[in-house]
Amino acid sequence: MQIERIEVTPFGGQSPGTSGLRKKTRVMMEPHYLAAFVQSIWSAIDGVSGKTLILGGDGRYFNAEAIQLILRMAAASGAARVVVGQGGILSTPAASHLIRKRGADGGIILSASHNPGGIDEDFGIKFNGANGGPATAAVTDRMVVASQAIDHYLMLDTPDYSIDLVGQGKIGEMSVEIVDPVADYAEMLEELFDFDKIRGLFAGGFRMAFDAMHAVTGPYATEVIERRLGAAPGTVMNGTPQVDFGGRHPDPNPIWAHALMDVMYQENGPDFGAVSDGDGDRNMIVGPSQYVSPSDSLAILAANAHLAKGYRAGLAGVARSMPTSRAVDRVAAAMDMPCYETPTGWKFFGTLLDDGRVTLCGEESAGTGSDHVREKDGLWAVMLWLNILAETGKGVGDIMSSHWATFGRNYYTRHDYEAVEVDRANAVMDGLRAQLGMLAGQTFAGRTIDAADEFSYVDPVDGSTASAQGLRLSFEGGGRIVFRLSGTGTQGATLRVYIEDFINDKNALDGDVQVMLEPMIALADRLARITELTGRDGPDIRS
Ligand code: VG1
Ligand code: CO
Prior knowledge:
This protein is an alpha/beta fold and 543 residues long. Helix content is 34%, strand content 25%. The chain contains 18 helices and 27 strands. The strands form six sheets. Strands 2-6-5-3-4-9-8 form a seven-stranded mixed β-sheet, sandwiched between helices. A seven-stranded antiparallel β-sheet has the order 20-21-24-25-26-19-27. β10, α8 (217-228) and β11 (236-237) form a beta-alpha-beta unit. The protein is globular and about 75 Å long.
């Protein structure tokens, strides 16, 4: 076995976005492309010599080949041990948990999350640090610098290592351990939630549908919900992972998760529905004929988490990403706990969680999590919901109505314009940015803007900064419109418009979101000239 030194020239564009490096699969498969980026990760973390890494992915096309490449490169650069999920599978939260449980130095997760998979779709790679969380901006910046200067990478010349059976072995000097991807994670959930109570719920005839979207949560949900909690066989839909996710986007929103929506909106459907994404870190919750917006879900979980075993002592604080609705802020204020506002992406929650300032975090994009790991966690959120339902004996609809009756309702929607020409999307953002200084104090269609700015963030724990994190317009009375460009796409630009309005009129808490927000939606279009500049007559996704 010989260490080969392979000369390369920089590829350019190897810049991680909101959550790792995402590219078209064919780009990732170009000779030396992935290897050059992996070597850049090693450079960014001062090498892997003597280190222990966790390795796995969401099972999408090219996952297995990428695992072999990373094993050869870790061995060539002197890693001590790599722990791999059997078959190359680890959900993002399970990987985060394993990093923490094993005291590993970090981990690599192969996933483009909610992006579609397949040879003509997307592939992704992200590095998580020793706390189990996404690499900080300082680390990803070093990856970019290294990728721009790279001239060679190291690779051990060795045959493929079989990752199909649990067990220990070696590649050269490096130890390799293949582990069950589900077992440790399921055990952790048992510590956090009242499994007996939830088992009782199912035993009493409670019916649930969980759509795994042919992505990584299939085996996790089947083990936990059907086997350990006793839900009826078939509760988990689309539970067999496929390399192309059955040709769909494993994105938990009402459009891509329409199979679940159909089940939940039928007459006499299940009591509770949920769906996760490609790598298992997101969740969307649906009650009988009732979509729960992720921002509301975060607020409801914050208000009720103390009902579950692992959270009985209460929450230290909560955090949400800036575009997430401010429903959770109202809960935090009422419960007298701190509430932090961070830029989009889980990496910004890490310092707050590590410092013990917050227990629960969430994003409007169907991501919720807690200090049990350092990633958002789809199945964890489903379990917390189940625990709350079991404890209160209430249905999803009742919980939502009583929440709104107590706190008022932050009507909220996100409109996505996907694969817009980059120049056009930039024109929308630039046009609005140019007006920001003049908007405060102005009134449009009867709504007065009280502040307009571009969000920048100073981390209260380590003082690091992030600028240009989205344009915000806030309105008197609690309305808000936020505009930003996605950092996870691989094609053109995706413009995200986040629209929110606060209503506390007891007779207007059950309205249709798109109808209730219609005036604000029209205002967003008018102020940012979206229709005119993008040439689109409406968003691709409303969630
Ligand atoms: C999106 C979401 C963001 C989330 C990120 C990664 O980012 O908006 O909230 O953290 O995806 O989620 P962007 O930059 O496209 O808006 V995942 O589950 O795709 O890793
Ligand atoms: Co994800």
